[in-house]
User: What shape does this take?
Amino acid sequence: MSRSREHLTLRLLASLVGLAAALPFGYLVWRTNEYGWSGALDVAVSARSLRLLTSTIGLAVAVTASAVAISLPVAWLTVRTDLPARRFWTVVTALPLAVPTYVGAWTVIGALGPRGMLAEILGVGSIPSLYGFWGAWAVLTLFSYPYVLLTVRAAWSRLDPALEEASRVLGRSGTETFIRVVLPQLRPALTGGSLLVALYTLSDFGAVTMLRYDTFTRAIYVQYRGALDRGAAAVLGLILVILTIVVLSGEQRFRRSEVVHRLHGGGARTAPLVRLGAWRATATVGLSALVTLSLVVPVTVIAYWLIRGIRADEPVLPGVNLIVNSLGVSLLAAVATTIAAVPVVLFVRRSPGRLANVVERLSWSGYALPGVVVALALVFFGASVLPVAYQTIGMLVFAYAVLFLPQAIGAVRASLAQVTPSIEEASLLLGVPRRETFRRVLLPLLRPGLGAGAGLVFLTAMKELPATLLLAPTGFSTLATRVWNATNEGFLGRAAGPALALVALSSVPMAVFLARSELRAEQTAQTVNAGAAEPSESTITA
Amino acid sequence: MTPSRALSSLIGFSALALSSCGGDDSVTLYSGRGEDLVQPVVDACAASTGLNIVVRYGDSAEMLLLIQEEGDNSPADVYFSQGAGFLGLLSADGGLLPLDESVLSRVGDDNLVSPNRDWVGITGRARTVAYNSDRLSADDLPASFADFTDPAWTGRIGWAPTNASFQDHVTALRTLLGEDGARTWLEGIMANDPIAYGGNTQVLEAVAAGEVEVGFVNHYYLYRFLAEDPDFPVANRFYTDGDPGALVNVAGAGVLATADDPDAASTLVDCLLSDASQRYLAEAHFELPVVDSIEPWSDLPRLDTLTLPAFDLNRLADLQGTVDLLIEVGAL
Assistant: This one.
């Protein structure tokens, strides 16, 4: 394939993906147009919208900031220190991502709410209320911080310590080195992860509803569910899309200099481990507290309901078909979404410019929208344009791809940023055709990003609810829809089994993936370090 | 294979794998009522009628949005809604087919049937005031539901303003008390700082825990708690005699205008009104049967003994006005 043909194919594929992802956006514009733009303007500048704007942005900023504040130290501890049981902590600090926020909110209320298990254990009538901003902030932080942690950890473990050593040798303190050398290199990962958290917060419905905090997404649901008003809901949805695009433009500007690959070939040496010394206990206590709140509490509460369910003779075991359905569609979604992300990422990297910016923003446009908006857009599109595919697995997987594309894009992009272009150029110079170069050189280098992206999409698809309820083939249930159905009618005991299965089935593949990549990193480190100076003697003490 | 070809073949394969689903003689039910409640009835009806019934479960409002968004291509045949308001909306849009008199005549009270004869109530769900029976007796409650605006109730009321049943009740109040009357009532309640919960179940838990003393709920949730814990310290107060607290809403069903086989669809609706279905819904889920021959569970009142305010359930379709009013008074 010639260079220009390759360029054209890439451009075409990326634009197609961008257009598909923009379907919800287009639908909202169309519905708003039907509603009337002057009415839309009234809704947009009403006192209520402005209040929602403040409360929504406030929550997104607070959740993102605290996710970063948790992730940086946890990433450092698990990547750069001699923390005891490091691999165990690496895995369990990422697992809260397997807990859906609607289950998380439900269990946090069950455990810490005014009538929760804690109040029962302490024998007090009520404990300080966790409803409102603080509750929503806490729950969203606890169950979404791994988006930042995973990306930052991955980037940190691949940093070349030589730069930090140079900084120290030149007389900079540890703190200065962190701020001026390490942080800038982590910036793409930090912004990528933060973006996922911020936009996730904008789109979340489960946690803010259960914890009674008013956001745009909740207001959209009030219009849909209360008034069946698709027009007013569309206006609010459009504001969310615009908000997303503003955030994204900021991020695009911020990451302009996102080239963090090394100029010369060869792998980075692994950094010597920092000895925590007396701080090991403190670190362990901190990590235990984090994991208790974000993982042990939810699992304990679900187990408690499970036992209550068994005692009341409720059916508690999830059907095998639910497990097969959940795993099947989530795997398909992971594969399809990651494949769709590749042309977008390559196009943005190779032909930066206006079209690339537009394609990238369109790819993200649906991510901050509540699932029900995206689902209804695709219902409309599917039923009227593609009735053959409507309510098939294919359509559901397509919906997942539209919803979660940014997760795959973020992960693949982070990988590509670390690929030295000269490697590809060398392959081409040696006469390897472009297609072969792509397959034999680029793809293997992108593998960590492809794996991470697919993993994130898999996890999120396992939890997904609104699109699954509306777009799955009729009669097709998943673990998530089963949990929803049971809790909706107040049958907590019946929800516990599927909820536990959902968390476990999401956790296991992630744990295996993390443990394996950890192992691989260690093996590579041994080979690379074999020729380097003896690392154990050059460790820096904290 | 290029990425896009892989993607399209994947989608194509799945579409192929599923196109065999849903053959002839099948009825597609969009249910706004939960699987735990409906599936046993559906299984029994499939057995007794020989129909192949497939069900999509979801929120009542979202199932209606789905039907509207699907338009003429909707695969749905029957819509089963939690409340009359959504059915009234669909009826007003001409989205429902008239039902056979043989089906409608199963229901004793004409108030529980659409005035357009195109949907029918399946069970009654009374609005009640649940109170903490350790702290209050029935006599402590105001004689009329309208009097919860008394400042004596400050900080003692729990409600679920986003809940569809609550919103239906407010729509009823707008008709019974007039727009201004309903606004004054809501403002009076808001002045008493009610605590808002996500749904009826949470309101009941709060009443039991003494977080609030009374809650505005549907009658049947309480009996689920009592079945698990006979000492659950909550009781229901049913308002009657034309009081604004006495709304009985119905969960109802109708055959959609887009139904492929209206006769089969109508058979399903008919089966939901059969003695077996009505008995199951009454005894396992404590809802009020609409068929005269079936008695309600335990000492729950019969629908025909609840004196209801003269009221046309189709009026519940004015949902937008209610949401606007609730937003205006700051309840949403």
Q: What stands out?
A: The mean pLDDT of chain B is 88. Strands of chain B lie at 26-31, 52-57, 78-81, 120-132, 157-159, 195-196, 214-218, 234-237, 248-255, 288-289. The radius of gyration of chain B is 21 Å. The CA atoms of residues 203 and 281 of chain B lie 23 Å apart.
